[in-house]
Amino acid sequence: MRNAISPWISQRLVIHNLMASLACLAIVFTAVASPAAAKTELPSEHRLPLQTAIEAASAAISTCRALGAEVSASVVDQHGQSIVQLQGDHAAPHTFGLSKKKAYTAVAMAPLQGVKRTSEVAAGLRASHQAIGDLALPADSIDEITPIAGGVIIEIDKEVVGAIGVSGARSGKEDEGCAESGALTTAKLYPF
User: Fold this and answer.
1) How would you list the strands of the sheet with 159-167, edge to edge?
2) Considering all CA atoms of the chain, what is the largest pairwise distance in Å, rounded to the nearest integer?
């Protein structure tokens, strides 16, 4: 009796193993045949080219120079990394680093608060009582965050692609006006 059942069980096992092997082969061939289906699509983002950033910073410096102010201007990408920093011919030494901090603050903080300028970031901090004095500066620098007027995000088709910061004019409002002119130049030079 054992011998009569044994061939039947053996056949079932062979068929079962054959089906399992075919299923595995089908999965392997499907993955090999269509590698695109197995890949996860990476997100894409727009980046400001170096020449565009240089022209934006130059436009901001020229705008301030026309107003009688010698300034520095910095452009950062959407991640806060420097693309370009320019110092005007007669700009004070501190303006170089401060312009970068304003640009960084604009790209890091303004989108989170739904605004476009560092003056608006500062106003938001003052309104929420997170300011120290009139400048809305934190007690310690937090990752280069400097919420004072002079930084403007660069948006193209509602996508933040960077920011520009200006320092050295007679007021933060004037710095910010020059930064806005640089941001507008960027949008005109590099439409997506």
Assistant:
1) 82-87, 72-77, 159-167, 151-156
2) 109
Residue ranges making up the domain that contains 22: 2-38
DSSP state of 132: S
Whose tokens are 């959407």? That residue is 78
Q: Which residue has the tokens 């400097």?
A: 146
State how far the alpha carbon of 111 is from the alpha carbons of 52, 80, 107, 166, 188, in Å: 22, 12, 7, 19, 21
In a domain, 130, yes or no: yes
Residue indicated by tokens 């303004």: 110
Residue 176, CB half-sphere, CA atoms under 13 Å: how many? Answer: 19
Rg of the chain over Cα atoms, rounded to whole angstroms, equals 29
Do 81 and 156 lie in a common domain? Answer: yes
- pTM given for the model: 0.73
Tokens of 24: 């595995």
Residues 105-144: tens digit of each pLDDT: 999 999 988 999 999 998 888 787 665 445 545 555 577 8
Q: Same domain for 19 and 64?
A: no
Burial grade of 58 (CB within 10 A; 0-12, 13-18, 19 or more):
middle
**DSSP-derived secondary structure letter, 192:** -
Residues 66 and 153 in one domain: yes
Helices (H), the chain: 2-33, 35-38, 50-66, 94-113, 118-127, 172-189
Pair 6, 96 in one domain: no
